[in-house]
Structures are given as C-alpha cells and as structure tokens.
Write a structure and sequence with these properties.
The protein is built from three helices and no strands. The protein is mostly helical.
C-alpha cells in the first residue's frame, strides 16, 4: 500500500504545480507584459529589416521650344499707304 501513497503524493504535487502555473499565466500583469514584449519585438524586427524604397523620378520630356514663324514684314503697299497719309 505504500506505493499508492507515493503515487497519490506525486499526483497531488503535480496538481499543485499545474495550479500554480495556471495562476501565474492567467494573471493580468503577465498577459499585459507578454503583449507589450510581442509588440516590442515586432517593432525591433521591422526596424532591423527596414530598407528605404528608392525614389523613382519620372523623366520629364523636355520639348524643344516651338519656334514661332517670324512676323511678316510690313508689305510695301502698307508702307506706301502710311506714307501717303
């Protein structure tokens, strides 16, 4: 019968350990700290692997200035008409 007493004692100790672990894990402070640590690690891994995107500038197509046709020279008829007046 001594064997069963030892087994029962081991089982009760295991149950006590699991109860203690459950209480620790279920504590709101442990859960809060766990969430904060996970967010912190995500941020650190983001910063460590961050690569700046290259800025791609679109090439501006420069058009040659449009040459305006030269102003027509005043016609001889117009000069004669202006001289007569």
């Amino acid at each position: 019968m001594r064997f069963f007493e030892k087994t029962a004692d081991i089982v009760s100790k295991e149950k006590a350990v699991f109860d203690l672990i459950h209480k620790v894990i279920a504590d709101y402070r442990v859960i809060t700290i766990f969430i904060i640590v996970v967010i912190y690690l995500e941020f650190v891994s983001f910063v460590a692997s961050y690569k700046k995107k290259k800025t791609v500038r679109k090439a501006t197509i420069r058009k040659a200035p449009v040459e305006q046709p030269p102003a027509p020279a005043p016609s001889a008829e117009g000069e004669e008409a202006a001289a007569e007046e």
